[in-house]
Amino acid sequence: xxxxxxxxxxxxxxxxxxxxxxxxxxxxxxxxxxxxxxxxxxxxxxxxxxxxxxxxxxxxxxxxxxxxxxxxxxxxxxxxxxxxxxxxxxxxxxxxxxxxxxxxxxxxxxxxxxxxxxxxxxxxxxxxxxxxxxxxxxxxxxxxxxxxxxxxxxxxxxxxxxxxxxxxxxxxxxxxxxxxxxxxxxxxxxxxxxxxxxxxxxxxxxxxxxxxxxxxxxxxxxxxxxxxxxxxxxxxxxxxxxxxxxxxxxxxxxxxxxxxx
Amino acid sequence: xxxxxxxxxxxxxxxxxxxxxxxxxxxxxxxxxxxxxxxxxxxxxxxxxxxxxxxxxxxxxxxxxxxxxxxxxxxxxxxxxxxxxxxxxxxxxxxxxxxxxxxxxxxxxxxxxxxxxxxxxxxxxxxxxxxxxxxxxxxxxxxxxxxxxxxxxxxxxxxxxxxxxxxxxxxxxxxxxxxxxxxxxxxxxxxxxxxxxxxxxxxxxxxxxxxxxxxxxxxxxxxxxxxxxxxxxxxxxxxxxxxxxxxxxxxxxxxxxxxxxxxxxxxxxxxxxxxxxxxxxxxxxxxxxxxxxxxxxxxxxxxxxxxxxxxxxxxxxxxxxxxxxxxxxxxxxxxxxxxxxxxxxxxxxxxxxxxxxxxxxxxxxxxxxxxxxxxxxxxxxxxxxxxxxxxxxxxxxxxxxxxxx
Lengths: 261, 405
What we know:
The complex is a heterodimer. Chain A is built from eight helices and ten strands. Chain A is α/β, with parallel strands linked by helices. In chain A, the strands form two sheets. Chain A has a six-stranded mixed sheet with strand order 6-7-8-3-9-10, sandwiched between helices. Chain A is globular, with a radius of gyration of 18 Å. In chain A, 45% of the residues are buried. Chain B is elongated and about 105 Å long. Chain B has two domains: 183 residues, no CATH class; 178 residues, no CATH class. In chain B, 43% of the residues are buried. Chain B is built from 13 helices and twelve strands. By secondary structure, chain B is of the alpha+beta class. In chain B, helix 1 crosses helix 11, helix 9 packs antiparallel against helix 11 and helix 9 packs parallel to helix 12. At the A-B interface, helix 2 and helix 3 of A face helix 1, helix 10 and helix 13 of B.
């Protein structure tokens, strides 16, 4: 599992290490014709390599907008967003696509797998856009699927997989290009509670190996599995604190009744 | 992305909506098929016209007695009596571009054999006539130079006349009556079919020119002279030389009308060739309209497909697809459809033009140029009509696209 990821970075102290994400006074406006929506009103944030951050907030709090900015799907109206020291706000579409491909891994609420496309091919997709040679693409996709425990179901279509399995395919896809950050937008929103904990266990495992994870959720008990929790309200960060009494997903799973999926 | 991956993804996407893809391709299949078939049939027809013209004899120059203007009264073609056997001999001797010539005159007459009779054209000529017109005998022989000298009562039948007089009987050595005169049949000409103008060339009887002049028409002058030039290129020179020679021999002063006509069959051939070429072009351009309609069909389906797959596009962009990647993906689907459609269309078009040629007994002609043009054109149709939907897909906002249900 560790071989797929970059060398663990969180052993270094935060002081010497450049933050993987640094957001400075970011604003975002949406011009909807007559009305102007001020979605983000001056957000400042630093995330060090190896952190596990949960971003919470009600709908309309700006957390989704912020997630889109972190994911380089959108650019700020003003302010700076440094991803590994590079100011993303200055980049063009091509560079942003390249960053999404190589540095970021996305996991969505709705899984967002391509229908009628096998698990293996879904996972292979980012490597295709990274223009890796064919053998390496297959090799990486297989390893990523084995990592999330789906080595036996590579040729299955999404419709033949349970929700939890589909989300694990999505996680494998997010990891296949060895990103610096895993961004998860409500990854457990469509899953039952046991499966949710299973997904959180995967995230905790990945984080333990040094991967930076940023998780957006509105469920407090899911946010608990992170190490740091940030709360958005009205386009600003209202609270930013470490998580106390962080449960180990593996432990929690043992207490839950086993329902085989 | 490499070419094979793009192709694989495009084929997979098309296979997902088989019926839709096939119907969309059908537009291109019909368009390309129609172009290939019309060009093929058109060229077959053109070939057929050329064969017909060639069957009239190559390098042919046709001299006929012209109209004459006597004190304001203009008589029709063939009315003059000035074209003579000596003119013919002079043409052969004095025009360097002329290889040989044969005299001709004709009259219509009722011919009878046994219980059958037939109204046909009786032509008087000399044996070299058949060589000039490259017209072989189907059976028997031509009449000879001796027959011409002695004005012998011998006849060569055209195929149509033979059929009407003899049916399945053997005409060799039989005696027929032309008017009231008995003639011995010495040969039957091979069937030649229609002339370039549509007249049945086989509906004729040939007798020695002397026999015709002395015993049938009683006219010593010629109605026409058939000339063969030394080559096809020389036929224009022959035309000029003959004109100059005959004006001189007939003492026509400069400014006066000719009392003869010299027609070059190369002109006729060119005209017929040109008209069938224009016809082919016209048909092909009508057919290519259906190819454009097919292209619009592709554009329509690709636009639907882009809308349906908005979410897929969003996912691809989110995980790092470049605009160019998405563009290529959708463009390649359109091009794959148009290329496959084009390939099937070529087969369908070639097949149907073979069928039509076979049915009409025309020479088979599948133009390689039309095949290449159709292949290139259908690919271009795919690119042209696929580009707009593909660009639309590539420029989708990923956030909007991911939200799309």
